[in-house]
Design brief:
Strand order of the largest sheet: 4-12-11-10-7-5-6
Structural class: alpha/beta
CATH superfamily of the largest domain: Type I PLP-dependent aspartate aminotransferase-like (Major domain)
Helix content: 25-40%
Shape: globular
Distance between the termini: 44 Å
Low-confidence stretches: 416-429
Strand content: 15-25%
Radius of gyration: 22 Å
Number of strands: 17
CATH topology of the largest domain: Aspartate Aminotransferase, domain 2
Largest sheet: 7 strands, mixed
Length: 429
């Protein structure tokens, strides 16, 4: 650990929350150099939907590397790229009748968002983009401009402009008509709001605190975008690839976005890979107009194709996500009573929002002591966020929830929860 203190930048975060040296990982488990094992309810911030070192993906990668497969290729054509595109078309796009072309913008989620914003402005000839309160879309300047978190925005050091911030679903309360407000601004030529190039959102705001948009709200938003000539962009970077059950988080919402951003679990193995999906008519790029050195990450193509073929040939994974979600939500609801908290989420992204912001942080710390990795989210880290691998076994899920419940009990016993509460024992009885 001394070399970390001596050489690594102070900007590091997760190693402060989980202070140990990890050495091995398999499935839903991490192991440190002392041989202690941790259940992983963090899953690489959603980059490990299929767990650590899934054997099918690992074998595909080993075989590719052992055969001297191409590792780096810019955007030149390789067998690995062709196989990935064929798998994406076969397992995802064609079964859903989605009319998308595929752009490789660079290896990370923020690259996918930057490309989407740039394309929307190029296609429409407009500059303004509508984003939402509590949104998180990345740390490069364009993506940061459409991100809500003040601390992250302040670190930019320059003005972040050409963005209109709108209230997310239920941000102003269940009875507020946030989209009616937005429509009024668009229709009033004296509002000071120019016609937008795009409306960008997450169907579930993960880093923003596990805020969930309703299907009704999303459908109204899609109609609003169409009426005003704006492209609808869905950032599915953290909640896509099965996190909510279906492959895309918007599938069950009754909308088809113009542009979709994917990354994180797309490679299936934790390898960097991102795509920006766009309707065919939106592909107005000139060759080389958007570029990058690491667009041809072939090892990630290999594991992504293996993941698509292994997990998305039928609906089995989606069904198990729904079942595990019901188990986790029921347990969280009981813990929430003791914590004076509220549970929200979809699929296997679930959050417990605590009225006392310090409580979620204490629970996370105690969970680590109990051998469970679980992070916090929200503007004040007030939300305990559960992101277990989708492939976690039912027994492992229950074991992790047991450990979380013990952590909740310890956090409540330690002091300073300001409002009256019931013990976990009382809730359970």
């Amino acid at each position: 650990m001394q070399v970390i203190e001596r050489l690594e930048s102070e900007v590091r975060t997760y190693c402060r929350a989980f202070p140990t040296v990890f050495s091995r990982a398999s499935g839903a488990w991490l192991e440190d150099t002392r041989g202690r094992r941790y259940l992983d309810f963090f899953a690489g911030a959603g980059a490990l939907n299929y767990g650590h070192n899934h054997p099918v993906l690992k074998q595909a990668l080993i075989e590719y590397v052992s055969a001297d497969g191409v590792t780096h290729s810019l955007d030149m054509t390789t067998e690995a790229k062709i196989r990935f595109l064929e798998a994406l078309e076969r397992r995802v796009l064609r079964p859903r009748d989605l009319p998308y072309k595929v752009m490789f913008p660079g290896p990370t989620g923020t690259n996918a968002v930057e490309a989407a914003l740039k394309l929307a402005r190029k296609y429409t000839g407009r500059t303004q983009v509508v984003s939402f309160t509590n949104a998180f879309h990345g740390m490069t300047l364009g993506a940061l401009a459409v991100t809500g978190n003040a601390a992250k925005r302040d670190a930019a050091g320059v003005p972040l402009s050409n963005v209109v911030r709108a209230p997310y679903c239920n941000y102003l309360g269940a009875d507020a008509d946030s989209l009616g407000y937005l429509e009024t601004l668009f229709e009033d030529r004296s509002s000071g709001i120019d016609a937008p190039a795009a409306i960008l959102l997450e169907t579930v705001q993960a880093e923003g605190g596990v805020n969930v948009a309703s299907a009704t709200w999303l459908r109204k938003l899609a109609l609003l975008a169409r009426r005003h000539g704006a492209l609808l962009i869905v950032d599915d970077i953290q909640v896509g690839c099965g996190r909510t059950g279906a492959f895309f988080s918007f599938e069950e919402m009754g909308i088809v976005p113009d542009i979709v951003c994917l990354s994180k679990s797309l490679s299936g193995y934790g390898l960097p890979l991102a795509v920006t999906l766009m309707r065919h008519e939106l592909d107005v790029w000139k060759p080389g107009e958007h570029n990058g050195t690491f667009r041809g990450h072939n090892p990630a193509f290999v594991t992504a194709a293996a993941a698509l073929d292994h997990f998305w040939s039928d609906s089995a994974l989606s069904k198990t996500v729904d079942e595990k979600s019901a188990t986790a939500r029921a347990r969280l609801e009981k813990m929430a009573i003791a914590c004076d908290a509220m549970v929200r989420g979809r699929g296997l992204i679930l959050g417990m929002s605590c009225r006392d912001p310090q409580l979620a942080r204490r629970i996370s710390r105690h969970a680590f002591d109990q051998g469970l990795i679980v992070e916090t989210a929200g503007a004040d880290d007030q939300v305990l966020k559960l992101l277990p691998p989708l492939t976690i076994t039912p027994d492992e899920l229950v074991e992790g929830l047991d450990r979380l419940e013990r952590a909740v009990g310890l956090a409540l016993d330690h002091n300073s929860h300001p409002s009256p509460r019931r013990s976990l024992e009382a809730v359970a009885s």
